[in-house]
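Wait, mind explaining this?

_____
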Amino acid sequence: MPVFLVERNFAEKLEVSADGAAAINKINEDLGVQWLISFLSADKKKTYCLYEASSVEAIRAAAKAAGLPADVVVEVGELHATGTTSEIQKERFAAN
């Protein structure tokens, strides 16, 4: 499945409650989008998130349904079980 990098610009700090996070996860699940990991920029104005999804359109639809920006969406590759250096090693991002 393709992996996408999503850049989000926030003018203010984003705070999501546990219920809000559960709602976002449900939207993602319903649209076939799987969140992998997120990073906050040093200036705390942008987040960068990796997702698995079938298309850019699926990413944008999930973001719109969740009320989140998806300012830039770039396909960055696919996850493979082989874990070669040019591929993302999904198990590195799994919760322990």
The mean pLDDT is 83. The chain has one domain: 2-93. The beta strands are 2-9, 34-40, 46-52, 72-78. The radius of gyration is 13 Å.
